Amino acid sequence: MVYEERNAWTGLVLSVIAMTAYVVLVLQQADGGPLTAVDWFPLMLWTIGIGIAATIVTTILWGIAAGMRDPDGATRSDIRDRDISRMGGRVEQAFVAIAGIGVIVLCAVGADVFWIANTMFFGFGVSAVVGGIARVIAYRRGLV
């Protein structure tokens, strides 16, 4: 597995874990009450921070393990990697744009800040997951 594919897998898996953890934490704090009453901001910040740190640490550790097996190929990338990365980035941008439109609509109808912030948070999360899936599929099946 090449460097960029390892990074795609890491981002994909940890994005799903982070979003799931956030949902569980918010639902636990709501405890059957309204979600808008939850103090979501610290939960969101911690989830984002821990998710970023976990991605960095996992990437480094996986890179070290790969480097021990294949020192020459551990960080090598080529034009295929660049093309797959660009395609994944375009997929991600589309989902961030959709989330942005959702945020604008929520602002226009006067929705609670909880819903506005969480729409953007999950827009970023879904874009990372869908972009990761697109990259992994491209590595496995190739770009068409």
Write the layout of secondary structure elements.
Elements: H1 3-30, H2 40-69, H3 79-108, H4 113-141
Oligomer: single chain
- The gross shape turns out to be flat
Main pleated sheet: none
The chain-level structural class is mainly alpha
Number of helices: 4
Give the uncertain stretches in residue-range form: none
| Helix fraction by DSSP (H/I, runs of at least 4) | over 70%
Tally of discrete structural domains: 1
Order of helices and strands: HHHH
% residues in beta strands: under 5%
Number of DSSP strand runs: 0
Keywords:
single chain; 144 residues; mainly alpha; 81% helix; flat
How would you characterize this protein structure?
By secondary structure, the chain is mainly alpha-helical. It has one domain. The longest helix is centred in the middle third of the chain and has 30 residues. It is flat and about 55 Å long. The model has no long low-confidence stretch (mean pLDDT 93).
Short description:
The protein has 144 residues and is mainly alpha-helical. Helices cover 81% and strands 0% of the residues. α1 (3-30) packs antiparallel against α2 (40-69).
